[in-house]
Design goal:
Residues 30-267 form the Beta-lactamase-related domain. InterPro entries: Beta-lactam-related, Beta-lactam/transpept-like, Diverse_Enzym_Activities. It comes from Curtobacterium pusillum. This is CubicO group peptidase (Beta-lactamase class C family). This protein is of the alpha+beta class and 290 residues long. The chain has ten helices and twelve strands. It has helices at residues 3-18, 50-63, 91-95, 109-112, 116-122, 134-148, 151-160, 188-199, 212-216, 275-289; strands at 22-29, 32-37, 44-45, 185-186, 203-204, 207-208, 223-224, 234-235, 240-241, 247-251, 255-260, 263-269. The strands form four sheets. Strands 2-1-12-11-10-9 form a six-stranded antiparallel beta sheet, with helices on both faces. A two-stranded antiparallel sheet has the order 3-4.
């Protein structure tokens, strides 16, 4: 039995014993893989795991010289009216949730305003204050759209196609722009391909897809958060630190890519409150087997 199969069996037993409502599991360690599915491996919304896709798209555009993540976004949006201090916000700030723009989440945020990005940008910035918000990623992709054209098409050509992923549905707002940090549907195995790309620092199938620094940026230069639970006390470009020595891309209801060295655990689920306990078990199991 391979190491990947051993890990997969331990995780499957845990899911079956605890009742965590998982759909699919994919284990990658070195070049070994193992999978298990509790339900058919159809495409499902990966929620905030899509924020990692947005970081990779921005990185590809930066590699092409089309954007600079440390230049104020006002450079790319000369026709936009900004709130006080918001004109100094950069793409890096938007992708690390440190724009300082206060815009609380609502379930209908894509339709609450005539234009969500313009509403976000007209609000004042409180400085480099962390606030997790979907409008932050959405606005980043609206900036990117000015430089690459339709972001959904750009991602399909430059990111998904090299990974062999085709015809990916991505929710759009009433104005026709991708929902960005949500609304993306992938199979468990397709999400795992993104995990392999990130683990291998931007290479896939022997070809360079995105610069290594953008994969590294998902789990370095952490924004530290005080007074929060472990696993949510540090954030980088789309990546959360923890639990334990892991870091992860984490979408609502348990859509996760969990990274530990050359091992990547991909899980899709419909169990929002069980996801943290599953991630903690993964961290413990990988440490036990090290």
């Amino acid at each position: 039995m391979t190491t990947a199969q051993t890990i997969a069996e331990a995780l499957v037993r845990h899911v079956d014993d605890t009742g965590f409502n998982a759909h699919g599991l994919h284990v990658l360690t070195g070049d070994e893989t193992a999978e298990h599915h509790w339900t058919p491996d159809v495409r499902r919304e990966v929620h905030s795991a899509a924020k990692g896709v947005c970081v990779l798209a921005t990185g590809i555009a930066a590699d092409d010289g089309l954007v600079d993540v440390d230049v104020p976004i006002a450079t790319y949006l000369p026709d936009v009216a900004f709130g006080a201090g918001t004109d100094a916000v950069t793409l890096r700030h938007l992708l690390t949730m440190t724009s300082g723009v206060d815009m609380p989440w609502t379930a209908t945020e894509l339709t609450d305003w005539p234009d969500l990005a313009l509403e976000f940008l007209r609000r004042p910035s409180r400085g480099r204050v962390f606030q997790y918000a979907n409008p932050s990623t959405y606005t980043a992709m609206r900036v990117l759209e000015r430089r690459v054209g339709d972001v959904g098409d750009f991602v399909s050509r430059r990111l998904f196609a090299p990974l062999g992923i085709e015809h990916v549905p991505w929710q759009r707002c009433p104005n026709g722009y991708v929902a960005a940090g949500e609304g993306l549907a992938l199979r468990t195995e397709e999400l795992a391909r993104l995990g392999r790309l990130v683990r291998d620092r931007g290479e896939y199938g022997g070809s360079r897809v995105v610069g290594a620094r953008w994969c590294d940026a998902m789990h370095t230069d952490w924004v530290q958060r005080e007074g929060t639970d472990p696993g949510y006390d540090r954030y980088a470009m789309a990546g959360w630190g923890g639990p334990g020595r892991l870091w992860r891309l984490h979408g609502a209801y348990g859509q996760m890519l969990l990274f530990d060295g050359d091992t990547v655990i991909t899980v899709t689920a419909d169990d929002h409150f069980g996801a943290d306990a599953f991630a903690a078990f993964v961290a413990d199991e990988l440490e036990r087997q090290a």
